[in-house]
Request: fold
Amino acid sequence: MKSNRTFLKGLAGFTLFELLVSITLLGIIMIGLQQVVGSALSAYAGAKKKQELLAAAGYAMERMVMFAQACDRIENPVAATAEELLRVSERVLDTYNNATHAYNIDGDDRADADNDANDLVNDDAVNDPAEYVTVDLDKTDAGNWKLTETLPDYSTAALDDVAAARVICEHVSAFECKRLGPNLVEIRLAVRDGENEMDLKTRVRAGAVVM
Reply:
């Protein structure tokens, strides 16, 4: 009987003090893990937001560069003084299908921007006058400035008709265009969303500008 009691004493569990110490240590470890995981998730969300902001600004900049390079007329800016407006002729050649936006070296032969269907755009001041692409800064929403793009309406053969303006970039903090030469434009686009901020600047040389 005495030996059985000794055996049972050897099987005794943790004391209350030991349990409290274990729970405390486990709690400290869990809090530390929570902070590490929280920091990692926060860093990931910040990096993703920054990447999305850069992608939006890059897309808008690529659009402006594309049209400026292909134009033969720069209406705005008119000087090296910074303007919140870029206005250039749409392009020189009708080398894509206006319905599908697919590249087509022979043009689409549609009477729209190229009204005489000769694959040359803006070559006739009477029957095929210049039509323009306009990029402007919309400050209607004070908390979220938007960069808008207005294109000619390629669905009709009417002259000087334009499609509805569309937003190509949000959260714009600054937009400046400067005319550095007859066919050279400097474009600066800055975007900011919370703590994330991007500032892009480039210079674009148009192919052949008619003064």
